[in-house]
Design brief:
Number of strands of chain A: 3
Number of helices of chain A: 16
CATH class of chain B: Mainly Alpha
Strand content of chain A: under 5%
Order of helices and strands of chain B: HHHEHHHHHH
Oligomer: heterodimer
Strand order of the largest sheet of chain A: 2-3
Structural class of chain B: mainly alpha
CATH architecture of chain B: Up-down Bundle
Helix content of chain A: 40-55%
Number of strands of chain B: 1
Mean pLDDT of chain A: 93
Shape of chain A: elongated
Order of helices and strands of chain A: EHHHHHHHEEHHHHHHHHH
Distance between the termini of chain A: 32 Å
Distance between the termini of chain B: 47 Å
Radius of gyration of chain A: 29 Å
Structural class of chain A: mainly alpha
Low-confidence stretches of chain B: none
Largest sheet of chain B: none
Helix content of chain B: over 70%
CATH superfamily of chain B: Cytochrome Bc1 Complex, Chain C
Mean pLDDT of chain B: 94
Number of helices of chain B: 9
Strand content of chain B: under 5%
Low-confidence stretches of chain A: none
CATH topology of chain B: Cytochrome Bc1 Complex, Chain C
Radius of gyration of chain B: 22 Å
């Protein structure tokens, strides 16, 4: 019978050498003890970061102009969320991997209307505001084109937006109820009521922070804080965390791709990086079956270092 | 009941199959081949030990709920234990992975062992990520709002919403750890069944078997 050819990168020689004593239970217990002690020492020496979460209240208090500009971008549909596409809306195609529009194919399964979700509905939750209630009724009963005119006129005048005695001031007389709505939204945010209104739109109990996080992300306040903590994408921020901690160091390769062209400038950068990482992960997973790649260990001969005692004995 | 009938039982068949594949001396060996003599072998068991510490510290954090560690110095210390055990876990796991790569540890019918190891690594990354986005602090706010773009671009964000803190927390403390532990157990059992991969023949020479 013809013997099957031995493939050194696939087959392993049968071990005919000796054996030495091995106490697997003792080894495991020693490992647990050492790792536990090391963990405790590191925790005592370095602790862990816990920078408090930021709030819409803090944002609107510390940077009211950025908050007001962001709120207006939600109202006039120019914000990042308003223009995002799937899964939030159909405003754009979203990112593409060549001809593949994966997000668009899945669709807007987490529907977000920035006008209603970030502005109108929170304002409706404010009690005891006759003037605001009247303006909201005026907004609700107006036609789409009338609303668009109000918002356009306000947006045009907002170039000279200013805060006077804590009040949002935009000089326009042709924006209908919009000036009062925007001013009241800022006041609502500064009391902390908007933080609550954004998370309780779907009921009393909630653990879904999609709306407030998207609202915060549409502004520049959070991004400016993140930049100071070296957390932005061009600062290898994907793998960092606040303070001098190792963070998710295992994401170094994923983060690396965001630093190089075209991913660092392309509007499709995210899906390009994900595409690359999917291919690389599949390659790692299927390494035993990929000719060439599976030969690298044998050809680099690093194994000679690992098994140096074995080779010293047999040679 | 006849002997034949007992032989046909699913339970009997399973027991015999398990006993054949993994007899006690393989499951809990007291000897090992002499070539298993390098510090690189330490990192497999170190990874498992760190996984144990990660799980125990995570369970301690779960006792008082997700906000406890923000308001209690004891809770914060437990969080620090959790963080550093995770760092040790990944450190050991990556060295273990590279070590096994340079041993070409998939040889001799061990491809599934390699694949379960890589898959455990990928699941562990997802587990750690969900931990970072469910911390309920500034890190989780920033990381989740940045990560959403990558995940949304694949279409997966429509179902796996990183801004939904409750969903991420449940994946972090239930689904992904369960997957990681099951994969780890499967991986270790495969190692016990197949044994540790032997060294290459001298200079990687091809020899007839």
């Amino acid at each position: 019978m013809k013997s099957k050819a031995f493939r050194p990168d696939v087959d392993a020689p049968e071990w005919k050498g000796g054996y030495s004593p091995y106490d697997i239970i003792k080894e495991g217990i020693i490992a647990v003890v050492i790792v536990s002690i090391l963990t405790v020492l590191l925790a005592i020496a370095f602790g862990s970061p816990d920078d408090p979460s930021i709030t819409v209240k803090a944002w609107s208090t510390n940077d009211p102009m950025d908050f007001a500009a962001t709120a207006l971008s939600e109202l006039n549909n120019t914000s990042g969320t308003a223009q995002y596409g799937a899964p939030y809306n159909k405003a754009s195609t979203g990112q593409q991997l060549g001809p593949l529009t994966l997000a668009k194919w899945v669709g807007a399964r987490i529907p977000i209307n920035t006008v209603n979700d970030f502005v109108i509905n929170p304002l409706k939750s404010l009690p005891g505001q006759p003037a605001l209630s009247s303006d909201l009724s005026q907004w609700s009963s107006a036609s789409t084109s009338t609303r668009a005119n109000w918002v356009n006129n306000y947006t045009h005048a907002a170039n000279k937006m200013k805060i006077v005695s804590g009040q949002l001031v935009v000089n326009t007389t042709s924006a209908g109820p919009v000036p009062l709505m925007m001013s009241d939204l800022l006041q609502m945010a500064r009391t902390g009521a908007l933080d609550q209104a954004l998370v309780t739109q779907n009921g009393f109990y909630t653990t879904d922070y999609t709306l407030p996080l998207l609202f915060l992300a549409d502004g520049t306040y959070m991004a400016n804080l993140a930049q100071k903590q070296h957390l932005t994408g061009d600062q290898w921020g994907m793998m960092n965390e606040t303070g001098n901690y190792p963070g998710q160091a295992w994401l170094w390769l994923y983060t690396f791709w965001y630093q190089v062209s075209p991913m660092n400038s392309s509007g499709n950068g995210d899906i390009l990086v994900w595409g690359i990482m999917m291919v690389l992960s599949a390659g790692l997973l299927l390494m035993p079956f990929i000719p060439g790649l599976r030969s690298i260990p044998r050809k680099t001969r690093v194994y000679r270092l690992i098994w140096r005692e074995h080779y010293r004995d047999v040679e | 009941m006849s002997t034949t009938e007992i032989d046909r039982q699913w339970t009997t068949r399973l027991r015999r199959r398990v006993a054949g594949k993994l007899p006690p001396e393989k499951l809990l060996p007291d000897t090992q081949p002499t070539y298993v003599a390098s510090w690189i072998y330490v990192f497999g068991v170190t990874t498992m030990a760190a996984l144990g510490v990660v799980i125990v510290s995570g369970c301690l954090l779960a006792l008082r709920g997700p906000q406890w560690w923000h308001t209690s110095s004891v809770g914060h210390f437990v969080n620090s234990l959790h963080l550093w055990s995770v760092e040790i876990f990944f450190f050991a796991m990556v060295i273990h992975l590279w070590g096994k790569y340079f041993m070409a540890a998939w040889r001799g019918g061990r491809a599934l062992t390699w694949m379960t190891g890589v898959f455990t690594f990928l699941v562990s990354i997802a587990t750690a990520f969900t931990g970072y986005v469910s911390q309920s602090n500034f890190d989780s706010q920033w990381i989740s709002t940045q990560a959403k773009d990558g995940i949304n671009s694949t279409g997966a964000g429509a179902f796996w919403n990183v801004l939904n803190t409750g969903q991420m927390l449940m994946w972090h403390i239930v689904l992904l750890p369960l997957a990681a532990v099951v994969l780890t157990v499967f991986h270790v059992l495969l190692v016990r069944i197949k044994g540790v991969v032997p060294p290459f023949e001298k200079d990687g020479a091809e020899v007839a078997q």
